[in-house]
Amino acid sequence: MKKIVLFITFISLAISSCTDDITGLNELKKEATSTKPEYLFTNAQKNLADQMVSTSVNYNVFRLFAQHWTETTYPDESQYNITTRSIPDNHFTVLYRDVLRDLKESKTILSAEVYVGTTAEKAAKELVRKNKLAVIDILTAYTYSILVDTFGNVPYTQALDLENHPQPVYDDAKTIYKDLISRLTSDVSNLSSSAESFGSADLVYGGDVVKWKKFANTLRLRLAVNIYDAEPTYGKAQVEAAVTAGVIMNASDNANFKYLSTQPNTNPLYVDLVASGRHDFVPANTLVNKMNTLADPRREKYFTLASNGTYKGGTYGTGNSYSSNSHVSATIEDPTLPGTLLDYTEVEFLLAEAVEKGATISGTAESHYNAGITASMQNWGVAAADITTYLARTDVAYTTATGTYKQKIGEQAWIALYNRGFEAWTSYRRLDFPVLAAPAGAYNGLTSVPVRYSYPAKEQTLNTANVTAAITAIGGNNLTTKLFWDKF
User: Per the domain annotation, does 15 fall within a domain?
Assistant: First the structure.
């Protein structure tokens, strides 16, 4: 009888607890339902840095496109097959979902914060908020610039708004560029060096507002140099304005994301090259042969010696023996190697190019060219005497090296931007140097190096009309379809 009474009591309690409202079943009782803007900002920074520095063939093949590295057992990506592994989809998704969406949410939460205290205390907090919002926007602009420079036209004005625009339009790439430059200009004016920003939540600059100003101006310089050939008058004005406002002019201001010594917070290269136990990559003969010709002192910093005692690169675009070729150096395999978003080396080569294009800024093309090479070598720990010797070579010195300014700057920038695959690829696309050839077995019979990613397959399926319009607008969805700024 006791069991029956207990059973009836249990049923009664169960029935009495029932309700027609079942919405609570979707609530996550054991997981956080809110967060802080700082956490979202940090997460966005890490996802962005990881995507830009990774060498996983599922996410980032820019070192391969730049022919700095090639592959061993599986050369598909060196042969420009980027669809089997859905590489464009993954790049697109990480930047929109894991970077831009987190930055947008960080901005939303930050904007909604209500401050209490005295008038002076609230004013101080508002100034910090204003700085944080500007930094968020700067990083947002950087991310969109990567998307445009990868695909061409991309979602922008309707992006990140699933409720109102689940199928966003693809905006004109040049229009996006100009808006990004405008945003960066405003962001710099909104930053106050008398107040803090994200502090320790900022894993690039530790909340240093002055350095974020230089970052924004440097990104503006990069965009201006890119757009220069498409709109010379506008590009010239923006280059000069960015330089006047103050760009990165020494290595201490480099935008380096700080990694830790243990997973999952190591540089992704450590995961791909060391922790994985795999040997999928070797330096490409394209780069190694060029550096051998120049007796470049960075070789020992970039690569190991091959088993035959020389610096030997794997044949680009084919299968290669890992054991018989040079390998990437221990420096690159260090789990704490910083992930670079912008640096002084890149700035000097951009300035050299800008001078040659006609921009009125201090210094000559030669002085900036020399400074770019020097900055790269110093960054990699090359001795001062070796730098002097290298700059004096007749095939390196700006006045005697072969070719036009595009060849001189293009070849040296390509070498200096080693391990920064996206930037090296962009420099190549803009200057058309060094001369890179597609491998004989290139995917779909390609006869030239890709100059963009094709649009993600998922986007073509789920957002068909807008992707189709974008393809028509840019002139095709091929790897060889040039971006608006790639005029020559």
Answer: no
SS3 of residue 282 by DSSP: strand
* CATH number (domain holding residue 343): 1.25.40.390
Q: What is the pLDDT of residue 34?
A: 76
pLDDT at 22: 52
How far apart are alpha carbons 401 and 395 in whole angstroms? 4
- In this structure, is residue 112 part of a structural domain? yes
Tell me how far apart the alpha carbons of residues 256 and 46 are, in angstroms, rounded to a whole number: 11
- Residue 470 structure tokens: 């974008």
For the segment 365-376, the average pLDDT, to the nearest whole number, is 98
Give the three-state DSSP class for 185.
Answer: helix
How far apart CA 132 and CA 344 sit, in angstroms, is 24
Residue with the two structure tokens 């969805």: 477
Over range 154-172, report the average pLDDT.
Answer: 97
365 with 348: CB under 8 angstroms? no
Three-state secondary structure of 23-55: HHHHCCCCCCCCCCHHHHHHHHHHHHHHHHHCC
Query: Which helix (H) or strand (E) is 180 found in, with range?
Result: helix 173-190
Interior/surface letters 82-102, b for 16+ CB within 10 angstroms, e for the rest: bbebbbbbbbbbbbbebbbbb
Print the domain residue range for 64: 38-266+336-474
- What's the predicted TM-score (pTM) here? 0.93
How many Å apart are CA 488 and CA 486, to the nearest integer? 6
In a domain, 9, yes or no: no
Cis amide prior to 168 (ω within 30 degrees)? no
In tens, the pLDDT along 66-108 reads 999 999 999 999 999 999 999 999 999 999 999 999 999 999 9
Indicate if the pLDDT at residue 11 is higher than 80. no
The answer for residues whose C-beta is within 8 angstroms of residue 435's C-beta and 6 or more apart is none
Q: pLDDT confidence of 21, banded at 50, 70, 90?
A: low
Can you give the pLDDT at residue 208?
Answer: 98
How high is the pLDDT of residue 438?
98
Task: Output the six-digit token pair for 19.
Answer: 């309700």
- How far is 352 from 201, CA to CA, in rounded Å? 35
10 in a structural domain: no
pLDDT value at position 13?
Answer: 37
DSSP state of 194: T
What is the rounded CA–CA span in Å between residue 391 and residue 422? 26
Counting the structural domains of the chain, the total is 1
